[in-house]
Amino acid sequence: MKVYNFSAGPSTLPQPVLEKVQKEFLNFRNSGMSVVEISHRAKLFMEVVDELTSSFKEVMNIPDNYKVIFVQGGASTQFEAVPLNLLVKGKADYLVTGNFAKKAYKEAMKYGDISCAASSEDKTFTYIPREYNIREDIDYVHMCHNNTIFGTRYTFVPDTKGALLVADMSSSILSQEVDISKYGVIYAGAQKNVAPAGVTIVIVREDLLERTMDICPTMLKWKTQVDNDSLYNTPPCFSMYVANLVMDWIKEMGGVKEMQKINEYKAGLLYDFIDNSSFYTNSVNKADRSMMNVPFVSPSKDLDAAFVKEAEASGLTALKGHRLVGGMRASIYNAMPVEGVKTLIDFMKKFEQANK
Ligand SMILES: *Cc1c(COP(=O)(O)O)cnc(C)c1O
Fold it and tell me: Where are the alpha helices (DSSP H) in the chain?
């Protein structure tokens, strides 16, 4: 049975990438060794890091005055790395649009005068606020570009009144074109759209590397990895290796521009189906809907549970919604083929017929 994996993360990876990994797992680039057993300082692996770094710059159209580094600890570690690297005046404002955004906000509070500039918690994070309370003289504004759990996304760059903008793009990186120059820092855990869990991508504007808080641990300081080409210590080699293959796959697919088109098409199919159905509902403000994570419910909790169970048995896995939201959630990242979304919609039709 063909299985489509709708997991929010770790999530499905492109089939051709997995096949390549399998094919060369025991003999990486004719070295007679596996990529997971060579030194991270060996020329063979340094090539991977070089390729990965330049691929990111190329594919994401990253301006020359930005650095790309690969670190460990997941996006969650960046929740503390951001204030530790950027809080020099001691003030920052946070846009609280979901669970991860709130975690980032709470973490930053340990390090300075942190304020919530806008929140959508009043309506269980089903929309992106349009009004902000940005203070004067702050070090940065932090936002979460795509809210993985609640299925919302920024379709615009928030007005920070000139303050530096920092974005968590864990669940949307490489899914759509981004004007990097609008951001000071972008970070993302790999396990949604880039690679297996392990590596975290940080894109940082060069001039920001000098303003670290004194107490910032060496390992959290972005400059440490910038100065060492992401090889200050042992990096998450396997995850970086797979990320490099995913970058090749994206290039073959026509780049991020093409990925965006496909993602718009996939999400469009699913949302259109949900909107035209009287059985399924998505409660997110339409203008703020995520292209990557689509939460929806059936008419009852019992039917939701039956849906998840029957879908699983039909090869459509990991559709259970996050515990904070309930219902279902289909994560349709870059690697989810159009066919997977169509198969899901077919299943949804059948389930509706059988249960309405
Ligand atoms: C998954 C996720 C995180 C947490 O990532 P980890 O790598 O598990 O720390 C943070 N932010 C967003 C938007 C996410 O989707």
Answer: 15-24, 43-59, 74-86, 99-108, 222-227, 237-253, 255-275, 301-313, 338-355
